[in-house]
Amino acid sequence: MNDTITPSSSVVAGANAHNPFPILELIGLRKVFGQQVVLESLDLSVLPGELVCVIGPSGSGKSTMLRCCNCLEVPSGGQVIIDGIDLMDRNTSIDRMRQKVGMVFQQFNLYPHFTALGNVALALRLVKKMTRRKAEAVALEALSRVKLSERAGHYPHQLSGGQQQRVGIARAIALNPMIVLFDEPTSSLDPELVGSVLEVMRELRESGMTMLVVTHEMAFARAVADRVVFMADGYIVEQGPPEQIFAAPLQERTQAFVEQCH
């Protein structure tokens, strides 16, 4: 995998869009916390270059599912397959596989004593073992992609919430992942700041980035997603193209949720 970020090298999914094999595949995923079953028999796949949005009511298991995709939550059963490798196999290096999966969190999780550039470059130095000079060059390119190169020297407290989240996105894409997971990326933002983050995500999608997005932004899911997945009570109730899910859902539970969101 290349260390540099360029329009051609950073978009792994776009270069492999003809590949019929999923980058991410969940098979029979199950997660239990104590006596509470949070995910049950969940099957989901994401193809190269695809943007899949996951919607559903609070408590439906969406964020837990996403965190199981890179073993931030260890599944209780089933398989999590990234690029053909099962993360649940005891011989799999989770740390190595996580390099293929970018993650953008609800909270920005930035180090307050590092600048925007320093926050993005840190992962490159720790994970990719780059020199400081190389890491900062790659980090600056990633910040440019999220339209923040002019804020590279600013600390988190000097940035708006939307800008902090865009630094988080830059940090994720700087590692040149095969897929980026977004966990409610706009939920912590004031309404006027949401648009700038969604615009960056739209541009990443147009560049061919493979993305799995848990979101409550219905208009974004309808306009941008290749596929929308509706979850409730730890299950996938229904999935399909946005026009089906939002205009002609097949399941009553999906219809009720969509109507409630209007």
Topology, element by element:
Blueprint (H helix, E strand, L loop, with lengths): L11 H4 L8 E10 L2 E11 L4 E5 L6 H7 L8 E6 L2 E2 L7 H5 L2 E4 L11 H12 L4 H14 L15 H14 L4 E5 L7 H16 L4 E4 L3 H7 L2 E6 L2 E6 L1 H6 L4 H10 L1
Parallel strand pairs: 3-8, 3-9, 6-7, 7-8
Antiparallel strand pairs: 1-2, 1-4, 4-5, 9-10
Helix pairs in contact: 4-5, 4-6, 5-6, 6-7
Task: Give a summary of the structure in a few sentences.
This protein has 262 residues and is α/β, with parallel strands linked by helices. The chain has helices at 12-15, 62-68, 94-98, 116-127, 132-145, 161-174, 191-206, 218-224, 242-247, 252-261; strands at 24-33, 36-46, 51-55, 77-82, 85-86, 101-104, 179-183, 211-214, 227-232, 235-240.
Describe, in plain words, how this protein is organized in 3D.
The protein has 262 residues and is an alpha/beta fold. The protein has a single domain (46-71, 94-261), classed as 3-Layer(aba) Sandwich (Rossmann fold), CATH 3.40.50. It has 10 helices and 10 strands. The strands form 2 sheets. A 6-stranded mixed sheet has the order 6-7-8-3-9-10, with helices on both faces. It has a 4-stranded antiparallel sheet with strand order 2-1-4-5, with helices on one face. β9 and β10 (235-240) form a beta hairpin.
Index terms:
262 residues, six-stranded mixed beta sheet, Rossmann fold, alpha/beta, single chain
Give unreliable regions as ranges.
1-17
CATH architectural grouping: 3-Layer(aba) Sandwich
Largest sheet data: 6 strands, mixed
Order of helices and strands: HEEEHEEHEHHHEHEHEEHH
Number of domains: 1
Query: In what range is the share of β-strand residues?
Result: 15-25%
* Large-scale geometry: globular
Our count of helices gives 10
Find the count of extended strands (DSSP E, 2+ residues). 10
Multimeric state of these chains? Answer: single chain
CATH top level class name? Alpha Beta
Strand arrangement across the biggest beta sheet = 6-7-8-3-9-10
